Amino acid sequence: MDEKGSVSPLIILPGINHSPVYLYGENGEPVKNSQGKDVGGTLLIPDVDALKEKLPGLIKAIALSSVTRKSEEVRARAYECGKALCRAQKCGKDGNFVNNLKVKRFEYPISEMDEETKKWAYVMVPIQGLTEQIGEENVFFFTFNLAGDPMESAKELKDYVALVKEKTGSEKVSFLPVSLGGTILTAYAYLYGLEDIDRIVNIVACLDGTDIVADIFAGEFDTSDRFLRHELLPAVIKEETGKALPGYAANILLHALPEKAFTGALDGFIGGMLDEFMLYCPQFWAMVPSYRYDALAEKRLSSPELKELKSKTDAFQKARLSLGDTLIKAQKDGVKIDFIAAGGLSFGDKEYGILSAVKSKNAYSTDGVVNLSSETLGAYGAPKGQKLPKGYRQVRECAEEPGYSYISPDGSIDASRAALPDNVWIFCGQHHEVGKNSAVLNLAADIYLGKVKNVHSDPQGHPQFNNPENTYHLRRWRLADAKRALEDVYSGKIKTAPSVKARLEQSIKDAEKVLESRIADEFEAEKVKREIDDILIRLGRAEAPAKESKVKKAIEKAAEKISEATV
Length: 567
What we know:
The chain is of the alpha/beta class. Helices cover about 45% and strands about 10% of the residues. The chain contains 19 helices and 12 strands. Helix 7 packs parallel to helix 12 and helix 9 (about 245-255) runs parallel beside helix 19.
């Protein structure tokens, strides 16, 4: 709320995969690929044509390695493939992107997006539960270049803030940093302060990096045979296809290769990506945690030819180290600042299984992608499955509510170490994709609308420690499907028994209750979704899932055993 009692316009600072960037030629025209499509994307901008040129060489090298038992050529060819993949976003040793990349900017609120763009925005950052309560006309979507420098992106954000203030007539704006958007907030706060900011609602914001990126830069991975040659591929392939069998089959084939062929291919591919893009990109250095920056900068950025790049990464390190003090001072000056975080998982848990390849996967409390300590500026969580040490005591007492415990009910997290512990909410066991949790969106809306001041305002309705949940499909599709089916039952388009009609009516009420809840309940959410699915199948409005045959299950189990036995 601003001084007049109305909501200030909200600017989303989105995550790593949320900003459309396109490649342009020297003549200012969009570059097309061999299929005639614009070259661009929201994460990597793969040069598919270049990659196609390099892949045959890699495949040939892999095949030959099974005969020669040598893997040097495999690594070299994989390295070229990694470079080809990142060619469009290539960064020079000065820290600037080499090609003509342009960010698609949205200079209007979500309410003015066309339906296709709006649908895309809600897929990227699924915040319908938030915009439904605060109004799409009050929400703007900032975008920035992944191949850029967060300090430069902050300068662009400064101009964007001025644009939003001019369009809305508001004296202040609010920020909602999501994931990588936390790095843009960090740079902005350092360069410009927060005098024109009303409220900041951080949602799983990457405020102090993630050890995933640090491990990649350090070349530290789980290289055990069991992980690389038995666990990794089935996990990744099952996540994408729902079936682990192709992964186990691939493992069996890989065992015909020299031991170092697979690791060489992986090492070469990552090395190519690092040398072409990541190592020279300030935005990726912004994802290295502050406590690992100095050692990695000494290892990777000590060359004189990288002086300009290092000056940029050093600048962001200064911004990051000052962020806690900046936010504490801003809160005292009246800026409302809150953190919604997730923890209790290892890297690669639940989604993005490929991330479990990093050596630090089990070392920290994370949301599967970002460290809990990063999202909260200091909260400590024991690694997944562990508790705080016996006799552990929180590091500070609560001034507002003497005797209050900042330690999670399961004894695994201490929020008292956070910079602003009274304004930190943690969803234990929740994956980084918190837009799938309706309770997160409802909390964000209540914070933004001023309905909740801090964790002491409504401990029953908005407890400091909450639960995981996945209501994405229920909110995005199933509830609407159920309501349309009920309308057709009322109109007579669908003939069904009164008992089925009653079930449908009740399931809609149950779904609305789940989506409106401030307490996440993954079991109730899944139960309601299954009930709606079952009714829609009965009414002919959904297809029953195909039953997996016992033969296929047996084959997969056998393949798993063979894969494991050959490690």
